[in-house]
Amino acid sequence: MRKVAVVGVGTSKFGNRTDVSLPELAWESVKEALDDARLGTEDIEAFVVGNVGGWSSEMLPAVVVGEYCGLVPKSGVRVEAACATGSAAVRTAYHMIASGEADIVMAIGVEKMNESPTPTVVEFIGRAGNYFWEFENFGLTFPGYYALYATAYMHRYGATEEDLCKVAVKNHYYGSLNPKAQFQKAITVEECLNSRYVAWPLKLYDSSPITDGSSAVILASEEAAKKITDTPVWIKAIGYANGTANLSKRLDFIGLEAAQIAAQMAYKKAGIDPQEPVKYLDVAEVHDCFTIAEIMAYEDLGFAKRGEGYKLVREGQTYIGGLIPVNVDGGLKAKGHPIGATGVSMIAELTRQLRQQVEKSRQAPIRKGMALAHNIGGTGHYAFVTILSLS
Amino acid sequence: MSDNVVNSVSKTLDKLYGEPLKQLETLIGATGLPVYKDPKSGALLWVDVRELRLRFTLSVNKIAKFVDGLREGKLLYTVCKRCGAKYFPPQADCPRCKASDMEWRETSPVGELITWTVINVKPASFSHHADYVVGIVKMPDGFNITAWVEADPKTLKPGMKMRLLVDRRPGENYITYWFKPA
Ligand SMILES: [Zn+2]
Predict the structure, then answer these.
(1) A4-117+211-228 has which CATH code?
(2) For the whole model, what pTM was predicted?
(3) pLDDT at position B1 over 70
(4) Residue of B nearest to A203 (CA)
(5) What is the reported pLDDT for B3?
(6) Which of A109, A196, B56, B166 might form a disulfide with A86, Cβ 3.0–4.6 angstroms?
(7) Architecture of the domain whose range is B109-181
């Protein structure tokens, strides 16, 4: 397998993007990534589009994006892994280069969720489990699936709704410093606690929003990367695993087994001691589609012991200056969660963090030169853990 | 017409999507185009005039005994005759030993609540319901079952005994299954 580097990144403004169509939205990040790498569309040998769709009009998003962005007739394909679709796109592009099939490949994540009314979007995401046994008869929703974990976790370990809200407060704080975030307003624990329930015990402020957005990264082989940039960011490892579709088949409801397996796989490949991963990492992006998800991520990744993740956020250890800064771009919670774009935007953000190019107020100190992205599809249905490194 | 799942869902969807549809008709009549300015962002929007209705038909042919069971007020699972693996949801095929010869058994009447939630913000097709409780219950048969829990959520605790019911769901009138504190 050949080494693979990130050589260009771009991310659109996230939010309710009524001002652009799906391919126009994709172009915003494609152009930024091309400019970042100082490349033209003619340099891109292949592209992978991450899009979940259903709520948006295009049935074949990869060809529509390829046409608009001038990538035809380069080989293009669409991938899907629920909310980890973006990571699946990066993984596919990574393998095309690692295998020697191509030297320069672009992964593009794009989602336009606001083309449908909110109840339709709620319905679509609620169907993202094992359809007949969870939705048809029982009407589970996406917050509902995570709420099943929140109830079990809180009873077992004594975490409170206030602890969960502290995740939201942190991520909104960093969202307020990120001009591309959907929400740019800091919030208080009280505001969060007073927000209405969407799926008890999860409230509106525990939840990521419905978002339109895109993100693109250009990956290159070692030889190509050295010609393109002086600051390649290497993909050291990608770990990935699946969980059962039907939540009733899970062992317990206090962590995501798929994420634990993906993390072990990535740590092994990257040479990171799984007992002390924070010693190797400067910054992390974790999948906080709901506040409980970020707390479980701390534990699944080994940042905290099982049952102690909520203490990290209680003590402020995941702010810049703490044990490990997490989601300093606002996370899914405040930056927004355009399903297919989220995983790509994590890689774009971490690349900029490692290059020390983000807004000063939210730049993590880079001393070890390694960063981690944790991207979950569905409720632990898919899990990707990607390690980036300056060396 | 008494309330059943089909007319309950249709009525709710009419309520949700009917008004915007009337506005769209008026808009086309007045301007000749299904185009308006989003009051929030000022962005110009074209409203799709080709409505897409989705209603899937799912095969339950290989688990016909499960359907028969519901009709008789029983919830059935499968046990692989070759290797003994148990399946709920019932499976017609056993990936463990690749056999497809299954025995159908009735689930135990009582299990223990593992976790639960209250669905406050509902999907479009469930918005005719009041907030409902969904729980996952551990059955002594060796698997868990996800279903609605008919109880005040404030009274629920992990480990509580739950009785399984198979009957017509009130207000929807089709046969399904749910739990009630035992
Ligand atoms: Zn078998």
Answers:
(1) 3.40.47.10
(2) 0.97
(3) no
(4) B120
(5) 83
(6) A109
(7) Beta Barrel (2.40)
